[in-house]
């Protein structure tokens, strides 16, 4: 049985990340094309776009990418790695991925090949999110207060303590104008107005865990987490207002679409969409109860939802072009 701490992380890391799915022990090719059946068996935790390419990370250190809006996929060339939980791209070429054992991988070719640039398995602190906001600065955060930053583009890494305790840090957001927001376990919220050089705690509207957040087109901030809780702030986290959501499914990942719509996804096949900068959200039919960890814009009128059964294409009630 999982420990209490493992249960807290159950919706954002590990094979239990997305509903306790167990990935089939299928041997994947080291690199190259992956069949549709294989993709349906992969646990994918996070994904980002590198230009027109989609790159996704997940179980057993797998990294996959697609150049045709998710119709077909290839496995990237990677060193042996544990579960990967998050990634971010500086530009169309350079990216960073993080995961268990505090492993950090880097790419310079749009995600086709990756090299390990850092790991701290002895710390036993999975990394859960990463941002790559400038050529020099990278920040990776995770379980038990894990916080690493690099100020030289990933050549060297510094471990820092930004929390008084060891609560899990689940997500980090760029809010603009050098402002960053950290959110995590038990309502943890920290704010920085100098791109992470210093941090201060914020009053939290919720004592449960937050798993992710989005910045809307009007610069408001939306955060979400356990039991379907969603909160919105118009002052960079100083104050928050609860957003009504009848669903109690845990909300794990999301994205802002090119037309400004906000999409949030989570357990039990849940997908919610907002067309008013996060003031309200409406459910979207997905045709599945499998959990999602990330959503991205797909072909016109559709999104791609990634999770415990690979990638699923879902129609939206309006058009949203990539």
Helix- and strand-based class? mainly beta
Could you give the distance between the termini?
A: 42 Å
Query: Percent of residues in beta strands?
Result: 35-45%
Strand order of the largest sheet: 1-5-4-3-2
- CATH C-level class: Mainly Beta
Number of strands: 28
Task: Tell me the helix content.
Answer: under 10%
Main sheet? 5 strands, antiparallel
Q: What coarse outline follows from CA principal-axis ratios?
A: globular
Radius of gyration: 18 Å
**Corresponding CATH superfamily:** YVTN repeat-like/Quinoprotein amine dehydrogenase
**CATH architecture title:** 7 Propeller
Indicate the mean pLDDT.
90
Model regions low in confidence, pLDDT < 50 over at least 5 residues: 1-24
Q: Identify the quaternary structure here.
A: single chain
CATH T-level topology:
Methylamine Dehydrogenase, Chain H
The structural domain count equals 1
Which features characterize this protein?
322 residues; mainly beta; Methylamine Dehydrogenase, Chain H; five-stranded antiparallel β-sheet; four-stranded antiparallel β-sheet; 2 helices; globular; disordered N terminus
Task: Provide a concise account of the structure shown.
The chain contains two helices and 28 strands.
Write structural notes for this entry.
- There is one protein chain.
- The protein is mainly beta.
- It has helices at residues 4-8, 36-40; strands at residues 32-34, 44-50, 53-58, 63-66, 73-75, 84-89, 95-99, 104-107, 115-118, 127-131, 138-142, 147-150, 158-159, 169-176, 179-184, 189-192, 200-201, 210-215, 221-225, 230-233, 241-243, 251-256, 262-266, 271-274, 282-283, 292-297, 302-307, 310-315.
- The chain has a 5-stranded antiparallel β-sheet.
- A hairpin with a 6-residue loop joins strand 4 and strand 5 (73-75).
């Amino acid at each position: 049985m999982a420990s209490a701490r493992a249960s807290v992380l159950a919706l954002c890391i590990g094979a239990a990340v997305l509903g306790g799915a167990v990935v089939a022990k299928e041997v994947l090719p080291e690199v190259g094309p992956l069949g549709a059946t294989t993709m349906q068996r992969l646990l994918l935790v996070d994904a980002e776009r590198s230009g027109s390419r989609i790159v996704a990370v997940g179980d057993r250190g797998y990294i996959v990418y697609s150049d045709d809006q998710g119709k077909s996929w290839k496995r990237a060339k990677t060193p042996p790695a544990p579960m990967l939980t998050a990634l971010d791209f500086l530009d169309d070429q350079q990216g960073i991925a993080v995961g268990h054992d505090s492993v950090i991988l880097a790419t310079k070719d749009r995600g086709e090949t990756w090299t390990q640039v850092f790991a701290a398995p002895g710390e036993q602190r999975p990394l859960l999110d990463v941002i790559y906001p400038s050529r020099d600065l990278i920040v990776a955060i995770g379980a038990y207060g894990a916080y690493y930053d690099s100020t030289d583009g990933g050549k060297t890494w510094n471990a820092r303590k930004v929390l008084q305790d060891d609560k899990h840090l689940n997500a980090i957001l760029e809010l603009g104008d050098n402002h960053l927001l950290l959110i995590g376990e038990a309502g943890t919220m920290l704010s920085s107005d100098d791109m992470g050089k210093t941090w201060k705690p914020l009053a939290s509207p919720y004592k449960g865990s937050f798993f992710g957040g989005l910045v809307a087109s009007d610069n408001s901030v939306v955060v979400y987490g356990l039991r379907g809780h969603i909160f919105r702030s118009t002052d960079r986290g100083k104050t928050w207002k609860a957003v009504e959501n009848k669903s109690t499914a845990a909300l794990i990942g999301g994205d802002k679409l090119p037309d400004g719509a906000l999409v949030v996804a989570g357990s039990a096949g849940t997908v919610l969409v907002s067309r008013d900068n996060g003031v309200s959200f409406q459910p979207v039919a997905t045709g599945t109860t499998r959990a999602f960890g990330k959503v991205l814009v797909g072909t016109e009128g559709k999104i791609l939802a990634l999770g415990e059964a690979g990638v699923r294409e879902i129609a939206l009630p309006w058009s949203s072009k990539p």
